[in-house]
């Protein structure tokens, strides 16, 4: 089976999943666990359809079978946006890049890089809601119309069911209902009647609490709230979740706006932050009560939201002429605001991309996210993601809001991940990754070929499975102290293979840190040096023998020298004695 080294990129911001040609999950990283809720032990070996919504499963199975039979892909090597299914049954919007490759057995492995789009979708929806509220306020001729449109826009855009505007009346120090709106699918007659009849003093009910605190307040479930005088009629109407925010200007609370949902809702602080800004916009409208002045002020507020966005925000009229251009758009396309305002949207799109969109309410692509090619001021082509929203229900004075994301870095990131994965898989060195506690999370194929241990053998175990008895415990203590301090450790190990054979390794071990600089993993890159050690041993042995030879020769020389002296003198004495004998 081909391993895609999912564990190598456990700290990646995207989910990495692989399946075999039978649709069984082979690889599942931590980001995949976060997105879908399944742990690795639960999902490995299960059908990938486990995380595919029921309505898409037949299409998936047919597509997989068609590819295996024909080899012709439809979505492979492209980026698509679909929905996945979480462990709790909820659906999650995802962006998926799919690729395929064959293993050594000639069987297909499919690799998916997946990004959770939930936050981005929420961000886009809320940005559109902010824009829609500003638009509703700016075109309204009366306060009543402005309130009705604001309630309807927020309910429809953010999926709430009932909204109320309360205005503060200084005489009496109370809040009274000024306007309400609800979706037509709920029966809320009694609750509406009660709402219009009642008034709230500071601290009483949800509106009164917000009047006192001048801050947004959230109720998960009205049924569990002890300070809600309209609870009976609200629950009869099926209302449960609620939040309320102040209409405020210069610290003065002019009123509050209240929303209800048919189901209990967990607190959403991002939403509360957004509606706080909307409360300020409504406050400006009430205070000035002049359409022309309100438009100017609301555009200033709106510009702050747009300028703070990480994505490009572009406004165009019905003819495609640009009238809003934020800082992010300048960074992406390199046009300054004064260079692009008044020009056609076509200036930043390729010819092919222009033909893919139509500025009409009837265009089915309106409201959807499109993958297109953009063009910078210098003519450089860049991959972009574009979402177009119409801000008018009729064809009169039609305008559009466009959210654009530059996909260049994402494309490069995906490419780098694939290159890194292949480099590690094909490395001539053994590579081993552990978590902070030393539990093995990944080993590459070279490790398996050298040690005999497979990834399955190693997962969750400590590298001490390789330990021989020849390495002192002090050395391991020094190793862990070094790498846990963030420094690199280098040294040699005399390890033991799965079959009991011993071998030498040269190792370099370092730490991996997350975006906050905290050590989360350790990586060991090791090289088999058994042959080198054997050669060193043979060389040392040869040198020892040579040294012994030199020593023996020296000793023999020292012994031979006095012996020769004695023999020479003995011979001399014999010769003298013989000569004396002849003379006599």
UniProtKB/TrEMBL annotation:
User: Residues in domain PAS?
Assistant: 8-72, 298-344, 416-486
A GO MF annotation of the entry reads: hydrolase activity
Give a yes or no for keyword Ligase in this entry.
no
Q: Which UniProt keywords apply?
A: Hydrolase
What GO biological process terms are annotated to this protein in UniProt? regulation of DNA-templated transcription
InterPro entries the record matches? Biofilm_reg_signaling, GAF, GAF-like_dom_sf, PAC, PAS, PAS-assoc_C, PAS-like_dom_sf, PAS_fold
SUPFAM superfamilies linked to this entry: GAF domain-like, PYP-like sensor domain (PAS domain)
Domain PAC, residue spans:
78-129, 487-541
NCBIfam families from the xrefs? sensory_box
Return the protein name: Putative phosphohydrolase
Q: What is the lineage of its organism?
A: Bacteria, Pseudomonadati, Planctomycetota, Candidatus Brocadiia, Candidatus Brocadiales
